[in-house]
Amino acid sequence: MLIGNSQAWTDSFISFDDRFLERIAVVWPECMSVLPAQPGEDDITINLVDRLAKDSIVRRLCHWVEYQYEPFGLAADGSKYSKGIIDIAVLFDWERERYLAYECKRLNIINSGSRSSLATVYVTQGMMRFMTEQYAEHLPVGCMLGYVLDGDISFAKGRLTRAITSHVPLALLDGPTSLNTIDTIKRFRTRHTRTAGSEIEIRHALLSRVSRKT
Fold first, then answer.
1. Distance between CA 30 and CA 28 in Å, rounded?
2. I need a surface site. Which of 127, 141, 155, 177 has the fewest CB within 10 A?
3. pLDDT tens digits for range 52-104
């Protein structure tokens, strides 16, 4: 839950996302260097969070970076329950309900020489969790990290654009709109009307398995 000016919190989340991605770009090559060519999503995320949690600049930017964070929901009888598991959550203080969520998905996996974009999974099992407020309940911003395992970011973004614009439940208001590239990380944003009627901005970052600009 946000207390105070909601636009101020939106601006704060967006500003943090920019700086956080700068640090992700720094630790990303080392993170991927210890993993196989087609690592699992959890393997990537665990190694990424481990490095971010040890990064001196990240430690100054926030209270904590949590792997597989469980936000609490409020039942009608006043009891709390788990709403699921977010891949990465950034906490800014001890307030559990105020966080910036990063849902992570692999893209462009190679299996037996064939490429699968996984763009539909990114939308239906990633973005839609923000739409239903399973993640980031009452919060104005959510983030997606796309791990592009074959390094073809142009292909990944094209398939994502098609999947996002064609999935009616996303209730797309605006976008996909490109954002400034951070190092090798290609970015864009989308804006949506959530199921409960509020709006949310989802910020997307595509990270190449191959350490080169695409």
1. 6
2. 177
3. 999 999 999 999 999 999 988 888 888 888 888 999 999 998 888 889 999 99
CB 129 within 8 A of CB 103: yes
Neighbours of 107 (CB within 10 A): 28
Amino acid, res. 183: D
**Spans of all domains in the chain:** 6-208
What is the C-alpha separation between 136 and 200, in angstroms, rounded? 9
| Tokens linked to 154 | 């142009």
Rounded Cα gap, residues 10 and 2, in angstroms:
10
pLDDT tens-place string over residues 131-157: 999 999 889 999 999 999 999 999 999
